[in-house]
Design goal:
This protein has 108 residues and is of the alpha+beta class. The protein has one domain. It is built from two helices and five strands. The longest helix is centred in the middle third of the chain and has 17 residues.
Length: 108
């Protein structure tokens, strides 16, 4: 399945990097996979890295959303900007996204 947009936006967060424009995290509404086997939640991070449209899949809409938020956390906290302490949310390096246990030491 190839995504062409995040669809209906259900959440958005603006982050800052001093040397760049605003970094926007856009989360789309979870939807059923076309084959009816589970759900996916589209997301996109604009202004940082590839800006590629991605999705996370789960058994239901809640799991898809949680996994999408974790995936966003992974991308953000592993970015060079975050490692250098430049990526902030309201002036704080805690960006407010969950991460899997395997990279918990990267998040403030």
């Amino acid at each position: 399945m190839k995504l062409t947009s995040v669809g209906t936006v259900i959440a958005q967060r603006e982050l800052s990097v001093p040397t760049k424009a605003t970094v926007s995290v856009v989360i789309g509404k979870p939807e059923a996979y076309p084959d009816g086997n589970g759900y996916y939640c589209p997301y996109q991070i604009l202004g940082l890295g590839e800006q590629k449209l991605r999705s996370a899949g789960g058994q239901d809409t809640v799991q898809a959303l949680i996994l999408a938020l974790r995936a966003v956390g992974v991308v953000l906290y592993t970015s060079q900007e975050a490692k250098e302490g430049l990526l902030t949310w309201n002036g704080n390096t805690d960006l407010g996204f969950p991460v899997p246990d395997s990279i918990r030491d990267l998040a403030p």
